[in-house]
Every structure is written in structure tokens, then in C-alpha cells.
Amino acid sequence: EMAYAETENFWEKIHQQSVANGEKVGWDLWSLLPGGEFQDFQYLTVNVYSDPVKMMEGSSWESLINNAKKAYPDMSEDQIMEKLGNSSKSRNLAVRIYLSLIETTEDQHDMAVGSISRINMMKTKDGQGGDYVKAERELFLPRHQQMVEAGQRGSWGLASVMFPYGTEVYANYITFDMYKDYAQMFGEFNYDSAPLSDDQQKAMQEAIATRDLKFSYIGRLLKKVR
Predict the structure, then answer these.
(1) What is the 3-state secondary structure (H, E, C) of the chain?
(2) Contact at 8 Å (CB) between 157 and 175?
(3) Residue 133 and residue 36: Cα distance in Å, rounded?
(4) Mind listing the pLDDT tens digit for each residue in 69-81?
(5) Which of 45, 48, 70, 158 is the most buried (most CB within 10 A)?
(6) pLDDT tens digit string along 26-72?
(7) Percent of the chain at pLDDT above 90?
């Protein structure tokens, strides 16, 4: 844990240079709860891009070294290479997912350090991806928007998994419930939303049947670069 914290502290300044160069929009570091040695992932890093081409290309090795030199002008190239090499000793890159944000609430959520996110991994039934997205937009998004406007939630978003893809992927959509802190997250359970009509309840049950909620993580924002 200590070694990994030092690794991300080192990389944070490099990400700052990458953002300054326009290579990416931002970078985040999240801790994932409940945590523990037997949880598949304890941390999540997010690189934010303005378009899919930049996302897929990422940063070249030459760009990485140049950004590292700018971030650490007092270090020699050999020292930088040693630091980069040591990064892999403190953690494993367990999985990488490329996402496209396709829907979000209208909000002013700042997502400050310390913010909380409930990250929901969704796997749609065969041939029902379109029905699922339509349901999120037409049925669930308006209710998420109401909760945002009532101060019960910071924001909400829906992203599709671009890569990897195929029948064996763990999840092909991810939703993000964003909160300013734990108090707001738990306070949401006491929110008295407008009652649903019988037709609305039926539509929501049909929408829920289009996907499986595979897993939900609770994330806490530790670092943020924009």
C-alpha cells in the first residue's frame, strides 16, 4: 500500500504534464471498497479523453519520457527510467477498459477529492443492449435528474464498454452514481420520490430484466488532475 501510494504520487505529476499538453482531459485515482486482499481490485485509475482516437492512441513512449522530464527537471533520465521501472513492482495492471460516456445528468457536481461513486457493472441480455440504453434514457435518467435537483445525488452517468467486447466480457455498460460524500450517498435511501403508476412500474420491471447487475463497487476519489 505504501509503495503503491508513492507510485501514484510519482505518476500524478506526469499526468499533469499530459493534461497541460492537451493529450488528455484528466486523470483520477480512486480507492475501491470494501477492499481487502481477496477483492479483485483495490484501486482504479481513470484517464479522461476528449475523443476516442486520443483515448485509443494514449501517450507514446516518447511523450511519456518528455512529460516525465518536465515534471521532474532535477532528475536524470536514468533516475526517471528507474522510477518508471519500479512502478510495476507495487501493483499489477489487472484490467483495462475503454469506455464511451453516452448519457449523463445536467448538474454542477464538482467531483472534489473525497467524492464518492457507486460504480455499477451491467451485462445486458443477448440482443437487448438497445432496449437497455433506451430504458436508461427514458425511464431512469429523469428520476436521476430529479434526485440531483433535490440535492440527493451529485450526478449520474451511463457509459458503454467499447473494448473489450464479445459474449465473454464481464460487463458491457457501466453506470456511475456520484455523491459529494458518504452522508449524501446514504441519505439517498430516505429520498421520497414521486410514486410510480402501474404502467411505470411495469416498464421499469421490463427494463431491469434487460440486464444483470454484475457487481457494484464503492469508490472514493483520492487524486484528481484536470
Answers:
(1) CHHHHHHHHHHHHHHHHHHHCCCCCEEEEEEEECCCCCCCCCEEEEEECCCHHHHHHCCCHHHHHHHHHHHCCCCCHHHHHHHHHHHHHHCCCCCCCEEEEEEECCCCCCCCCCCEEEEEEEEECCCCHHHHHHHHHHHHHHHHHHHHHCCCCCEEEEEEEEECCCCCCCCCEEEEEEECCHHHHHHHHHCCCCCCCHHHHHHHHHHHCCEEEEEEEEEEEEEEEC
(2) yes
(3) 33
(4) 999 999 999 999 9
(5) 158
(6) 999 999 988 777 777 899 999 999 999 999 988 788 999 999 999 99
(7) 77
Identify the bridge partners of residue 122 per DSSP, sorted by sequence position: 173, 213
Torsion sign across C-alpha atoms 33, 39, 43, 44: negative
Per-residue burial over 117-140, b if 16 or more Cβ lie within 10 Å, else e, is bbbbbbbbeeeebebbbebbeebb
d(CA 160, CA 165): 10
Q: Ramachandran region of residue 34, left (φ > 0), alpha (ψ -120 to 50) or beta? A: alpha
